[in-house]
């Protein structure tokens, strides 16, 4: 193991070497799952994706993920070619082909398809969309829960919605990747990104929360991914009497927070150990632990209701 870690670290699982991938209606071994070099996703990052997680046979918050997915596709005039029942069926087929029922992460990807010529204009993508579903056996590593993730604030900022809306889960993730590279160069695991005004916004791959004097703070949501887990945490705080604020705050308040954590479908809530080398709190994380327990119970109830 290197000393580098990411929020998406999972236990090694050799079954992933032989998984079956959904590729435009076919189920193929991962070694045979190939798209054209003319594919709009490969050539231009012109596509939309979703990350989802399977718990005991139920895809957590499938409706919310589909709201975001279909909303993003509509925003970029990308015809999905099927409704959400069709997506659910494609995901069922993929899970069945892999004998998967739980501890599974899914990356659903839709691109504008194969282009006639290697140029940008969307009208050159005439094949119809490319739909790929990758499902992997995936259990987040335990180590992150105790050690926490190390963040560095970076010069790369989240964009304004009228350049490339950060709410679009687009295949092109260069803005986030540049941020991550900058964090790595600073000796951290992942990046803490600011908004165009200098307020703390989000990390390169997850949403970001701090805890101060028993209150939970997160950004206004204006420049970050509209994370499904982010919204669940906000709703859980509201329903359980934990003060929650969506507001502007700066690094000054983040450095001196009592606790900080990230949210995302993969890792649920991941504690933050440090920001720019400054340890966060004293290492005890009572509010994070309370939210983790509430989220676990929410998933259990969701699975029960949708089994
Ligand atoms: C940049 C970014 N932030 C946050 C998230 C977390 O969102 P969710 O909770 O829906 O997984 C994602 C996941 O796609 C993301 O790409």
Automatic annotation (TrEMBL):
Gene Ontology MF terms: branched-chain-amino-acid transaminase activity
Enzyme category, top tier: transferase
Top-rank lineage group of the source organism: Bacteria
Record-linked InterPro entries: Aminotrans_IV, Aminotransferase-like, BCAT-like_C, BCAT-like_N, Class-IV_PLP-Dep_Aminotrnsfr
Reaction equations catalysed: L-valine + 2-oxoglutarate = 3-methyl-2-oxobutanoate + L-glutamate; L-isoleucine + 2-oxoglutarate = (S)-3-methyl-2-oxopentanoate + L-glutamate; L-leucine + 2-oxoglutarate = 4-methyl-2-oxopentanoate + L-glutamate
Biological or metabolic pathway of the protein: Amino-acid biosynthesis; L-valine biosynthesis; L-valine from pyruvate: step 4/4; Amino-acid biosynthesis; L-leucine biosynthesis; L-leucine from 3-methyl-2-oxobutanoate: step 4/4; Amino-acid biosynthesis; L-isoleucine biosynthesis; L-isoleucine from 2-oxobutanoate: step 4/4
Gene Ontology BP terms: amino acid biosynthetic process; branched-chain amino acid biosynthetic process
Family membership noted in the UniProt record: Belongs to the class-IV pyridoxal-phosphate-dependent aminotransferase family.
Purpose: Acts on leucine, isoleucine and valine.
Protein name, per record: Probable branched-chain-amino-acid aminotransferase
Source organism per UniProt: Sulfitobacter aestuariivivens
């Amino acid at each position: 193991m290197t000393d580098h870690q990411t929020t998406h670290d999972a236990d090694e699982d050799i079954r992933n070497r032989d998984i079956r991938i959904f590729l435009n209606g076919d189920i193929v071994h991962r070694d045979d799952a190939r798209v054209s070099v003319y594919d709009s996703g490969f050539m231009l990052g012109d596509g939309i994706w979703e990350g989802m997680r399977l718990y005991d046979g139920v895809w957590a918050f499938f409706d919310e993920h589909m709201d975001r997915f279909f909303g993003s596709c509509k925003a970029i005039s990308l015809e999905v070619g099927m409704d959400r029942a069709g997506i659910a069926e494609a995901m069922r087929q993929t899970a069945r082909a892999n004998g998967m029922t739980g501890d599974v992460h899914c990356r659903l990807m839709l691109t504008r398809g194969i282009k006639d010529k290697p140029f940008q204009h969307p009208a050159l993508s005439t094949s119809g969309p490319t739909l790929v579903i990758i499902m992997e056996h995936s259990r987040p590593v335990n180590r992150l829960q105790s050690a926490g993730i190390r963040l560095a604030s970076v010069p790369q900022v989240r964009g304004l919605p009228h350049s490339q809306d950060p709410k679009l889960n687009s295949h092109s993730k260069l803005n986030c990747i540049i941020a991550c590279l900058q964090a790595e160069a600073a000796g951290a695991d992942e990046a803490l990104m600011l908004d165009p005004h200098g307020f703390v916004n989000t990390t390169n791959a997850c949403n970001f929360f701090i805890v101060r004097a028993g209150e939970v703070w997160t950004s206004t949501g204006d420049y970050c991914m509209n994370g499904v887990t982010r919204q669940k945490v906000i709703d859980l705080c509201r329903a359980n009497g934990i003060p929650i604020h969506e507001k502007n705050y700066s690094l000054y308040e983040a450095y001196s927070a009592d606790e900080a954590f990230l949210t995302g479908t993969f890792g649920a809530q991941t504690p933050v150990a440090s920001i720019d080398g400054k340890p966060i709190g004293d290492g005890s994380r009572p509010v994070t632990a309370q939210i983790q327990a509430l989220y676990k119970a929410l998933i259990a109830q969701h699975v029960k209701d949708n089994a």
